[in-house]
Amino acid sequence: MTHSPAGRLQGLFEGRRLTPTQRRIAHCMVRHADEVPFLSSVELAELAGVSQPSVTRFAVALGFDGYPALRRDLRERVPAAPAAAAEANGYQQAVEGEIANLRRLADFLADPGPLERAGRLLAGSRPLPVLGLRAAAAQARGFAYFAAKVHPDVRLLDEGGTMLVDRIDAVRLAGASALLCFALPRHPREVVEALAYARERGLRVVTVADSAFAPVAAESDVLIPGAVGTGLAFDTACAPMLLGRVLLEAMCDALPDAQARLERFDARAADRGLFAE
Questions:
Q1: Rounded to whole angstroms, how far apart are CA atoms 41 and 52?
Q2: The whole model's pTM is what?
Q3: Are 38 and 80 in contact (CB under 8 A)?
Q4: Residue 224 near residue 243 (C-beta atoms within 8 A)
Q5: CB-CB contact of 109 with 115 (8 Å)
Q6: Cis before residue 127, ω within 30 degrees of 0?
């Protein structure tokens, strides 16, 4: 991610132990990478939903004398973007925001190492549990639907409550070695707790989240970020959805019989007349 504005900001925060408030500020800065270098500490605080002193303490935690020094560093990292040719309406801005999120995802994937590692972990788990609650349930369900065509035992965990821990125990006892989690805002507390429990039970956790600073980060062995769009009344998740499909591809690459399974499914579907075309 080193060449995009968001990637250069991400490099500033990597390896830092940040408080939840500081992670909120860092997440906000990455999502608004083009404009943040030109904001005052008060404006950044309002954008992130924190206090102005929190922004100052954040700058000091990063090793700067104060926010002005941090802003000077940001202006060197993130040059000013060219002005837009015309003012877009709110719907267009939401689409442009998602396009920017996809560009950041493409920059991240320039290093395929984390994705390939995640694919191997998922391919080697029998069974493979896929967790996603509330806003992330649709992403988990979509991944599980396609993964079941190439993986011999995929188990969807899309309902919370007291049974969730029981189901994690069940997949671990059945031989699971890894768990895939989709985690999107607003992050349910029980997802964080479930991942902590899964790791206690010996599962390796691969997480697709909206940010490397998401609350689930501390409970993930591999976290792959795909930002959500916030330009509409409800968040949009094009990047996490695409990331799920890319992760499927990486898992297929690590499954020696993935192509044979797909071909058998296609043959059975044709025999049954499953699809209209």
A1: 6
A2: 0.78
A3: yes
A4: yes
A5: yes
A6: yes
3-state SS, residue 205: strand
Residue spans of beta strands (DSSP E) within the chain: 128-131, 154-157, 178-183, 204-209, 222-225
CA-to-CA dists, residue 159 to 106, 126, 156, angstroms: 31, 21, 9
Rounded alpha-carbon distances, angstroms, from residue 28 to 60, 136, 164, 210: 17, 20, 31, 11
For residue 151, the one-letter residue type is H
pLDDT tens track, the chain, 277 positions: 445 677 777 778 876 778 888 888 988 888 788 888 889 899 999 988 899 999 999 999 998 999 999 998 888 876 655 544 457 788 888 898 899 889 889 988 999 999 999 999 999 999 999 999 999 999 999 999 999 999 999 999 999 999 999 999 999 999 999 999 999 988 999 999 999 999 999 999 999 999 888 899 999 999 999 989 887 888 899 999 999 999 999 999 999 999 999 999 999 999 999 999 7
Scanning the structure block, which residue is given the tokens 């409800």?
Answer: 234
165-171 long-range contacts (CB < 8 A, ≥24 apart) are 165/194, 165/197, 167/129, 168/129, 168/194, 168/197, 168/198, 168/201, 168/203, 169/201, 171/127, 171/129
Residue at 178: amino acid letter: A
